[in-house]
Amino acid sequence: ATLEQVEGVVEQCRTARDVRQEARALNQLALMLRAADEREGALEAMREAFQCCRRADDEAGLLSCAESWGVMHAGFGDFEVAEVRVREAMQLAQSAGDVGALASCRRNLGLIRGRKGKLRDAVQEGLESTALFVQAGDPQGAAMAAFGLGNILFSSGEVRQAVSVLEHCLLLRRRCKDKLGLAEALNALGLSFAQIGYQLHAMDYFEQALALCQELGDRDGEAACLRHLGRVHHVHGDHNEAVSSLEASLSLCLRRDNSSGQALCHRALADVRMDLGDPRLALVHLEEALSLVK
């Protein structure tokens, strides 16, 4: 549905005084406006959806809107407001005895606390969320929570802890037979091992992730894995292998019109060409990288 069509549905619901359906339509409208990066419109639509749920005494809708509203504020960088909204959703989930919803809220609260630099709180929320998802019989949710926690730890420099959490995520993704999620976890583990100097471990994880991305036809994922492989080959001293992987990644990025991926490939190729004793070609790649990020 287009934005105009959803706005039309909202008006139809208002005319019919169907508050519950109006809330659902407003929720959808808010998400579409968020995707279009229309901050004020998205937040206003979500506020109206929340009010509709309150008027309709729709507890499930109120919980869903409160959490979505918080996540939306976080996406716009309003972390203080985001935390207030998600905590409100947590209270609603606790009142309803909805373990799955509580797990989701705690996962999002952990991500918000992490973005605010509250690492200890973020880790605690991530652990609680993972346990609650397991309690709710939702291994997919538990895997998502573990993955988010692993990323928080990695970004905060706690890479060895991130490895432990991501390995747990990997186990959960295998149990779920979630190949796309598995590739995502393998890639994250590769980055973590590369960061702490275990280049051969990193290569193994990147190669596994690459095979899954190729099997699934995930070209963006394939390009990222090839780029990461190029980086670890370079660090390991395999310069020709590095060039091969990076050029393959660059080719995919060109076909996908992925300018940020192209810039990263050119930057990495510049480093490799310098180490191969070809400063002229290194400069060409560096200039290409700079032109793509302007």
From TrEMBL:
Primary location recorded for the protein, binned into one broad class: cytoplasm
BP GO annotations: cilium movement
SUPFAM superfamilies per record: TPR-like
Keyword Repeat: yes
InterPro entries to which the protein is assigned, alphabetical: Apc5_dom, Bac_ResReg_Asp_Phosphatase, TPR-like_helical_dom_sf, TPR_rpt
One family name in Pfam for this protein: ANAPC5
GO cellular component terms attached to this protein's record: cilium; cytoplasm
Subcellular location: Cytoplasm
Anaphase-promoting complex subunit domain location: 71-105
Keywords: Cytoplasm, Repeat, TPR repeat
Descriptive protein name: Tetratricopeptide repeat protein 29
Organism: Hemiselmis andersenii
